[in-house]
Structure formats: structure tokens, C-alpha cells
Protein 1
Amino acid sequence: MPSALFTLAKPILHSMDPETAHGMTLKALQAGLVPCCTVPNDERLQTTLWNRTFPNPVGLAAGFDKNADVVEPMLKIGFGFVEAGTVTPRPQDGNPRPRVFRDPANDAVINRMGFPNKGADNFRHNIERFLEKKDRARGVLGINIGMNKGVEDPAKDYCDLVQMLGQYADYLTVNISSPNTPGLRNLQSRENLVPLLTRILEQRAKSCASNMPPLLVKLAPDLTEEQLQDIAASLIEVRIDGVILGNTTLDRPEYLSAGMRQQAGGLSGKPLTQKSTQIIRTFYSMTHGALPIIGVGGISNADDAYAKIRAGASLVQLYTALVFQGPALVSDILNGLLVQLEKDGFNHISQAIGKSA
Ligand SMILES: Cc1cc2nc3c(=O)[nH]c(=O)nc-3n(C[C@H](O)[C@H](O)[C@H](O)COP(=O)(O)O)c2cc1C
């Protein structure tokens, strides 16, 4: 919705259950209530990675658009890329409600959604409709894939999704880091990770020979340095194309209210900012920048986005800050990044990557 409309609507939306408010926001976006914020279209921000051109390096993180309902309006808002999903092969309801909790005092959210989504058939239909549009907005489409709850063979779910959706994606993200699907984060261990990714990569080669999307892995921010080292070695061994660092955290900082601290699920937003920037910095140094990183976690202004880029991220994403600040946030961040570039004497955003790693 337009930014002025967001200012008017925010008190109403934020008086509702977060998921109901989110549903209304999606409906408004689908109905064409899309902001007309002026977004800088500046070559200094245009980023080419994996042979894809991102109009700017700021993307919408997974989870906002689980069913690929609003890819077009979110690109119109000014995001350089939209990561739709997490989608699972079969539709599922997710955990019982309520399962999303806002903490406005700390610009934070806790969610334990558990991948509610309408499944891969519906997702494919929506993507096809988006791709058919003649004058569609510029930008890159990422597809974030996950397994259904309780499956015996997670790799089969991921492979089925690569087969069904891989051809439509500018990049694919293997989500193995949401804390709300039992067993999912165990896929990050070396003995699980290498066989899983090997099967997915084989499936990609089979299903997407003519348009091979880069394959990324989304990791948790709660990994120890030792775990991260192991994972980095595995990812390089199997030749993964990039990583997303990271998902929500299981941390519960003391300054959160008692009510928030006791909620199960993943914490996102401001309390995650420093932690995710640090893990990006560690991963970048460990790998000497060999694997491109999408940095995500608690970005709520241009300084946060720039810090992640300087720590080693080639691109960044956000979700939670959008809930609190509305769509004008995107142009604010892009304009702020241009100011930062000028301050540092860079003439392109890529020059800042890893400068403070
Ligand atoms: C309500 C909610 C739902 C989310 N759902 C997903 C999801 O389905 N898949 C995923 O990979 N990440 C999901 N995330 C995590 C975000 O993509 C992101 O990694 C995390 O929230 C940190 O970024 P932020 O602090 O900018 O929100 C979700 C986050 C929130 C707040």
C-alpha cells in the first residue's frame, strides 16, 4: 500500500493479530494498492551476480510472500529482488495460531509458523501468471524451498520442488534453517548436508539443463564457528553457488519482555542485527569471499544494510523492519546506501563488499 496509506493504516493493522494484518496487507497489494515511492534507479547500486542483474542489492526476505502472490507489487515497491516461499511440495497448515508475535518496543517479531503454504502447484500457477505479464517490474525472483513436516526423506521433497519450480527461478534457496519444522536444522550437519545437496544438485542438472538457477543454502545465525567452518567446507566441496545468512534466531535477549521471551519460535528484527552481521563477517573471512553471501537479519536502515555489505554480503534482504516502517523503507535504504558510497569514496556498491571483514 502507498506509504501515506501505510501511515494511516498502521495503527489499525498493528491493533490486529499479526497474521490477520499480514493477510490484509497481501490482499491490498494484490488489489493494486501498490506504493508509488520514488526509488533511486542508480547504476552504482545495480549488481550482477550469478549472471543475473539485480536493479539494486536490497531484497525481500522469504516468508513475506509464501505463495508467490505478490512478487510483482513487491518489486514495484522498489526491492531489487523478491524471494518467494518457503514453499513445500504439498499444502500444509503450519502450527496452530497464534504463531506470530510483534514486539514494537524492540522492533522485533517471534514466529513459529512452520511453513504454512498452499503447496507447489498453486505456487507454480502464481509464478507462471507473474512471468506472463508483459510490462512486469524489473527485478530478480528467488524461490525458497522447504520440506513438508514429518517426511521420511527430506531430500525427495527438495528434489521434487527443484523439478517443479527450478525452471522458473532466477535462484533457488534450500531452506534448512527455520527453527519451526522439527528436524530441519539438523540438515545443516556435515553428514546430512553433503548427501542432501548432492542429490539436489543432481536434480537441478536433470530438470533445469536449459536454465540452471544458482543454488543457495539458507543457514541459521545460531551456528558455532566450528559448525560454520564445517558447513563452509561442505558447501565448497559440493560447489554450492551462495549462502543466505541467516534465518531467525533462537536467542532470547534479556531485554525482551517476559511474555515475548517465553514464546517458542524464531526471533527476527533489531535484536538480530549485530549477530547476523557478525556471522556474515566470520563466514566471509573463513571462505575468503569465495561464496557470495546474501546478508539478512535485523536490517532496519541504510547503516544496517551497509554494515552487512562491508562485512561481506553481496546482496541483502529484510522482512521484519517492513512490518514496523512500511514500504518507504526501501527507498530510504537505497538513498542511504548512495550517501554511504559517496562518504567512502566508492563509485559502485560492489567496492564496499567485505571492506570491514
Ligand atoms: C513471520 C516470518 C515468517 C518467516 N518465514 C520464513 C520462511 O518461510 N522461510 C525462510 O527462509 N525464512 C522465513 N523467515 C525469516 C526471514 O526470511 C529472515 O531470514 C529473518 O526474519 C531475518 O530477517 P529480518 O530481521 O529482516 O526479518 C520468516 C520471518 C518472519 C518474521
Note: Residues 61-63, 66, 86, 100, 109, 111, 113, 115, 144, 175, 178, 218, 247-248, 268-269, 272, 296-299, 318-321 surround flavin mononucleotide (CB under 6 Å).
Protein 2
Amino acid sequence: MVSPQTILVTGGAGFIGSHLVDKLVKMGHRVFIVDDLSTGRLQNVNKQAHFIHASINNPLVDELIARERPNVVSHHAGQNSLTVSVRDPVKDATVNIEGSVRLIEACRRHGVGRFIFGSSASVYGEPQYTPCDEAHPIEPISPFGLSNHVVEEYLRLYNLLHRLDYRVLRYANVYGPCRDLHEETGLIASFISSMVRGKQPSIFGAGDHERDFVYIDDVVDAHLRAMEGGTVGAYNVGTGHSISVNDMFLLMKEVMKYRWGPTYAPQRPGDISRISLDTSKAKRELGWRPTVGLEEGIRRTVAESGRPVD
Ligand SMILES: NC(=O)c1ccc[n+]([C@@H]2O[C@H](COP(=O)([O-])OP(=O)(O)OC[C@H]3O[C@@H](n4cnc5c(N)ncnc54)[C@H](O)[C@@H]3O)[C@@H](O)[C@H]2O)c1
């Protein structure tokens, strides 16, 4: 039995953050959420958590941390769109870099026990080999990948200068049931969103780019383990396998009994062509491994996210 802690989850009204909050509340922890609801939704917010409707860029967050003294800060608030990051890198940097540094600095000032950052596989850029382990060169090819990397570097520096204890979780493509389907919630959510509305899902490029999809319950489990164990540094959270976007479409078409084909849109700048993540380090140091296979995960996601329109 884990002793109850005070935990601040930024982005707790979003996809990953809300699943994490639900689990933490269920485990008996005292949970605070900071979210500006820019992409998150109030309906995602767990009623037993304390919700603060604010940006991580707001000085209020420092006051909150000073007052509540969380044991753990789990950082999942962010600008999560690759497309937005290419179109508006200043916006991406303002939230993902400046907002994160403000948060990290508040954690240092008020002695937070552990900082957990939800980073991204996009820090690796176009892989030189797959699956990528954590020692793979870091060469992001989008402002989003770069901003995630910069935050990881701030954490490394804060550990060096101030002994801030931290874990970075580099997520592959996370999917699972969500109460708010929209295109930026990820590829699978965007496919389901189109299929249930009777619209043809849109694929960027030829659909031959490959992604590693990891189920949300496994992501939450990795996070819980990172709260308790491991060492400072980064852990990949994926499956080690990749599937092309076209094959993913076919799998979902079958599961959802959808009749039509996809439409194809131009390739997005900054999109990686093929990636999967080696998770041996998380297995070795956190005792974590992914447990939900792709087909099972898709079925669970679809079951909780609606049926297609004929
Ligand atoms: N979903 C994935 O596949 C995936 C993969 C890699 C990394 N990540 C990272 O994990 C984190 C969470 O992703 P998600 O899929 O849950 O995205 P999401 O968009 O569902 O959640 C992000 C949340 O952050 C909030 N937010 C945005 N800017 C904010 C600000 N300035 N202040 C306070 N709140 C703010 C949003 O309202 C939203 O609730 C993001 O940082 C994302 O980059 C996600």
C-alpha cells in the first residue's frame, strides 16, 4: 500500500493527464490540477481533484506550489500539436519551454520531491535505427520535438545545480478511450472521431509512415512506477513495434465495421517517417512493460468511444 501523497498534475483536463488523475485519486492521493482548458475539457476533470483553471505560465502556480507543497509534480500541460509547433513556434516555445521552466523553477524554490515530465519520442527526430533506445542521438526535426528536448535539458541542469529529482517519460503515440475526441488527441482518436461522424478519415502523406502505439493504461502504469522508482533521466514508454498509418486504418476499419476508405492530405513538415521505442531501460529499472496489445487496445478504445455512422 502506497502512502497518500500530494500530487500536482498539470494538464489534468487533457487526455493523458485526466487518466492519470483518475488513477491517482482512486489510489487515495490528494490531487491538484492546473489546466487552462486550451485543449482539455472540464468534463475530463475528476471531481475529487482540486482544479485550478490557470496557465502554467501564470505566477499563481508558484503560489499554489508554495502553499500545497506537492510531493510530486507531474507535468502534462503543453502545446501538443506538431502542426501548431511548425506554424507557430513562438506559441509552442511560450507554453512548452517558458511555461515548463517557470514550473521547474517553482518546484526548486519550494522543494518539490520529484518532477515527472511527459516528453515525447519526437526528441529523437528521424531515427538512425529502430527501435530507438534512450542513447539514440537527439536530433528533433520539429519545434515540438525541440521544445521537449529543451525541457529535458533544463531538468538535467536543475538536477546538476539544485539536485532536483526528476524522471522524463518519452512517450510514443499514446492512445485509449477519451471523452473528447478531436484531431489533435492523436491519430487513433482522429480516425474514430471521423468514423463515428460518417466522415472519411484523413491521412497525411502516403500513409506509409510508421508509429509505435502505446495504450493509456500502460502509460499510467509507467508513470506510477516512475513516481516510486528509477533514477534521474529519461525512459522510453512505447512497445518496440511500429505499424504503418495505412495498416492502422485497415485495423480500425475492421474493428469499427467502417465501410469507406481514407482521404490523403499533403505530408506534414516535421513528421518522422518511421519510429518505435526500445523500452528495455524501463523494464530493467522500473519493472515496467507494455501489457495491452494493439488489437485489444483498439477494441477497448472503440468500445468506449462510439460507433460509426452508416
Ligand atoms: N498523446 C500523445 O500521444 C503524446 C505523445 C508524446 C508526448 N505527449 C505529451 O504529453 C502531454 C499530454 O498530452 P495529451 O495527449 O494528454 O494532450 P492534451 O492536449 O489532451 O492535454 C494537454 C493539456 O494541457 C493543457 N494545457 C495546454 N497549455 C496549457 C497551459 N499553458 N497551461 C495549463 N494547461 C495547458 C490543455 O488544456 C490540455 O488539457 C503533452 O505535453 C504532450 O506533448 C503526448
Note: Residues 13 and 45 are 5 Å apart (CA to CA).
Protein 3
Amino acid sequence: MSAAGTANPAGVALAAAASEPLLELRDLEAFYGDAQVLFGLNITVGAGEVVALMGRNGAGKSTTITSVMGLVARRRGTIRFAGRDITALEPFRISRLGLGYVPEDRRIFTDLTVLENMEVARRPARPGVPSWSVAQLFALFPNLAEMPDRPAGQISGGEQQMLTVARTLMGNPRLVLLDEPSEGVAPLIVEQMAATIVTLKKQGLSVLLSEQNLGFAAAVCDRAYVLEKGQICFSGTMAELAGNEAVRGRYLGV
Ligand SMILES: Nc1ncnc2c1ncn2[C@@H]1O[C@H](COP(=O)(O)OP(=O)(O)OP(=O)(O)O)[C@@H](O)[C@H]1O
Ligand SMILES: [Mg+2]
């Protein structure tokens, strides 16, 4: 670290980030046109934490994530990330601050190869954040390593899901927003995805993921928030959620 008295705006920002959650949503409300879908959410993700956003279809999980990325036009409340208020920033600026986003519908470039999909997302390393090379990501996703030159439109849905995560990691994010990583992929890939997220956590990456699969969330997450109709109806550790039959039955259907 630089000595006291040295002007270092980046160092100052990092110090600020250490004393507060890495990501903090305060009183978040979101609207589609006149329809309000989020009602005052308070959510935090600490540095190095993996946190689940759970709840049934339409509960507001994806809207929470897209709101953080600045992709929902009408919002109220405050979103802070790494010591900064990002509420009013454009999505590309939010991304450049180190917020990675894996959308629900993957959005890979189908005409580009696997490797090209990864290369287009490359960003410089960030101080204090795990940084990724193609070789490291191929070690993390061996399936992708076997097909670097294949057009991404010709790989399986599960492989595309892995590619979206690999592409996001090429940006060396501080925190990744993962929208339903286990949805619509084969059970074997779900297991691999869970193992991958556990590995990423060990490397120090922070994650906020949306998930309906309690088994998956229990395997990879530290804490969960359960949403129902755009409101938080439960927040606690995974063990507390597992032990709370009423919440599981009413809001998760398990
Ligand atoms: N683009 C949109 N325009 C209008 N309403 C929307 C739009 N996207 C989502 N909604 C509505 O907002 C509410 C929250 O949806 P959201 O997609 O955030 O839920 P979700 O928890 O991610 O659900 P799922 O598990 O199905 O992905 C739902 O009532 C949904 O119908
Ligand atoms: Mg969703």
C-alpha cells in the first residue's frame, strides 16, 4: 500500500469499500411502466460472500439483478458498490467498476468461437481482485477447453452457460451477478456449475445469484434472501433457511 500522504484515489476507494458491504441495495423499488415490481429491498453482499436471491417465478429476482446493472429504467432507492453510489450510472460504467453480469438468457455471440467469445470480454486486471487468463478459465471449465474453435452457437446449453460465466470472468470482476445459473441445464452441468462457484468463492470472488433450486443454493451460498411479490420475506443463513419449513413450503415450494 502507498505511504500516508501519497495521493491515491484508488486506495481511498478501496479503504472505503473495506468498511462497508461490497454491494448494498437500500430501499430498492423498481417499476415496469406504471407497474411496481420491487418494494423497498434491502440487500447486502460482503466481500467474498456468495449470496442467493430465491423465490418463485415472477418474485422479482431478475429485476433485482438488472436493477443493480442499471438496466431497469424506473427505480427508486440507492445502490452502492465498492464504496460508490452507482444508482444513476449507465450499465457500461457499472460493468467497468467490476460488476460482472451473467444474464438469464446467456446472450453469447453465436457466430463467434468459444475462444473469441472470451477474448471480446477481456478487461485489465484490478488490484485486490482475482484476475483470470484464458488458460485458467479453461482449467476451470474443461469442456470449453476441448472446443476453443467451435462456434458458440453449436455448443450445448450447459456449455453455453459455462461460456457466459467464463466470458464474465474475463472482465476480472469484483462481484458477479448470476441469474439462475442452474436453470435449464442438465444435472451433470448443474453439479459442475456448483463446484465452479465454490472454487470461485475460494479465490475470493463475491457473487449474488438468483436461484430457485434450494439444493444448488445450499451447496454454494453463505446466505439467502427469499423474495415474494417483490418483497423480502426471509433473510438468513442457508442453515436457517433449511431449518425453516414454513418459508421453504410457502415461498420455495420444497
Ligand atoms: N420487461 C418486463 N415488463 C413488464 N413486466 C415485467 C418485465 N419483466 C418482468 N416483469 C414482471 O415483473 C415481475 C418480476 O419479474 P422477474 O423476472 O424479476 O421475476 P423472477 O423472480 O426473475 O422470475 P423467474 O424465476 O421467472 O425468472 C413479474 O411480475 C414479471 O411479470
Ligand atoms: Mg428471473
Note: Confidence is low (pLDDT under 50) at residues 1-17.
Protein 4
Amino acid sequence: MGMKKDTLLLNSGRKPEDHHGIVNPPVYHASTIIRASVEAYEKAENTPFDGVYYGLHGTPTTFAFEEAVASLEDGYRAVATCSGLAAIAGALLAFLKAGDRLLMVDAAYSPTRRLCDGLLAGFGIETTYYDPLIGDGIADLLRKETAAVFVESPGSLTFEVQDVAAIAKAAHDAGATVIMDNTWSAGLYFAPFDHGVDVSIQAATKYIGGHSDLILGAITATEETFARVKRTCVSLGYHAAPDDCYLGLRGLRTLSTRLARHQETGLHLARWLARRPEVDRILHPALPGCPGHEVWKRDFTGACGLFGLVLKDYSSEAVAAMLDGMKVLAIGESWGGYESLILPTKPARNRTAVPWSATAPTLRIHAGLEDPEDLIDDLEKGLARLNGAA
Ligand SMILES: Cc1ncc(COP(=O)(O)O)c(C=O)c1O
């Protein structure tokens, strides 16, 4: 019997016997690699994807992180990248060329959209945005030029849960590669390759890092897609810093324990907010009312601490009064660290296929690891300020 995921996460990418019994793999910094002979030099040249070849392409620290991420996502192999956005760009560039079409989910992380509408458009790659809830209806959008379909489920601002398996089936029938931004599940609560995904990316900056002190990404691939991903990252000169890979690896060891607490607190806050008269709607994939909730129940094994909410029709000044006075929840972008965050969001700015209909203010909350009662207290006082300023 194979190891359970929690045990695997503690053991993958780790060989104390190779490092004097030291528990964590050390940080190797390198550019030049010195070879013992011309024969060894030529052998390394012929196998650039295996072992230490040149510092740019990774050191044993990078490989340890990559091995652990590949186990987390149940993929064949992973490539570490300098950021989550670099992982998205590397994965897209691996499968798209001039004249190709890309189907991109309308709820995508906004820098992903900027990449498609800017750089990729300039390269002659056309992006068509689609409804996150399209399911197998995506078949109607697939053409022979469609080389890739990108899913991000749930969307990190609007939280629609996608039917990834149905989308992947239609994409494969049309010969397209399926790429997923799997950051919300942290790779732990959704198994991308069991649902037909070919390449899964993680912004390791979020839950894998977990402490808001590193920027790191990873692309996990199947055996069929790995070489193309790795070649693209090498061609682009991608490099993930060994110190950040070390921190990413350290974060992975506690990911499951932290995520369980993020989940519990996130649900506690979301349920409390749902009962408040100031709140119109909660956008939490694990709660009824979130678009795609039934798909979440079918496909996910858990939820992280990131969710959204739509307030009743308050002014932006009232929302600012609520947020400015927060003592525990901090106003901040990004997410996945130990600290709780709250942010006003503007989903309408980033939609083209299906306009965002709510005109009332939306907020995004990242539930951190604090005592949940302190967070509730902070939110309760914040809602009092919201009403006071209305
Ligand atoms: C869903 C999602 N994907 C990717 C990224 C990009 O990660 P990074 O900040 O490491 O580039 C982010 C960052 O906010 C994100 O929210």
C-alpha cells in the first residue's frame, strides 16, 4: 500500500542519509558545476533534465521541492518557477504558438488575463474567455486552432467551481491541452490529474509557503507533458531561488495541518457572516449558494480559508470605514499566509464572457490561524462602523 498523503508530504524530497542524518535537505546555491572528466561533462550535456546540470536549471534543493510538489499533486514531475505567475506563463507558452487559440476561464486571476490580452496577443495567440460554469458546453467553443484550455477552480475572486472533468473531456476530444491553476486547493483538496488536467500550476507563494515571506511557483506535469514544460522553462531562463525552494519545502511539511485550520476558521467566519443583515451573499465553495457548490461537493475533499462575500448596497466610503479600523484582519493582497486578510474587490473589471452582475461592494477574506473569536470580534466591530458610516 502506498503512503497516505499526509505521510508522503512529510517524506517526499527528503533523504537524511545523504546529508549526515540532517532532517531537512540543505540549501545548495550554484551556478557552475565542475565535472571530473570530459566524459562526465559530455554525459551531463546529453541529459540536461536529470540531475545537476547548471545552477539555472536547479540544484538538489530545487529538485527536493519539485519532488515534494509532484507528490502533493500526484503528478509525474514538477518544475519550480520564480513565481506563481511565471508558472502560469511557462505552462501557457509550452503549449501555445502563433495562430493558436486559447480558451481562458472568465474568472481567471487578473494578471493571467493581462498576460493573455498583452504578451500572448502580441505573439499572435488569440484568447477567448468562457463562462466558468460552462461545463461540457465548452465543446461549442472548441475549434481546430484551440491548443489549450485553462481552468482556475474556484476563481480566486468570485469562487465559481468549475466542472473540470467535463471541460477536460471535451478539450481532449478536440485535441487541446488542459492547464489548471490549482492554487485554491493548495494541491491538497483537489486532485487535478484524476479530473483530466494535463498540467497543474501552483502559486506556492500562498499556502505552500504559508508565511507571507516568499514568492514561488510550480508547474506539475504528466509524463506526456513534462518534457515540453521543462524545455520551455529552460528556454525562458526560469530559475527558482534555492532559499525560496527551501522555504517552500519547509512549508509543505505543515501544509495539511495548517490548511485544516484555515478551512475550519474560514467556514466559521463565512457561516457567521451569512447570518448578518449587512451581507447579501457568501461566495464560499463549500457552502450552498456558491456557484458550482454541487461540483465542489463531488470533486473536492476540503476548502482553504479564502472566500468572498457580497455586501448589501453600501457606499465605498462606508466599506472603507469598516476596513480601515480592523485590528486583526489586515488589508492585503495575496493570501495563504498565517495572518488573516480582508480586501475590497472589483470583479466587474475582470469579466468579459459573463458580466459580473452585482453592483454592491464585494469583499475577499483570507481566514488565517488566529483565534476565530478574535476575528469575529474584529468583523463585528467592522460591521458596526459600516452601519455607522452608511
Ligand atoms: C489564483 C492565483 N494564481 C496565481 C497567482 C500568482 O502567484 P504569484 O504571486 O506567486 O505570482 C495568484 C496570486 O495572487 C493567485 O491568486
Note: The domain at 255-389 is CATH 3.90.1150.10 (Aspartate Aminotransferase, domain 1).
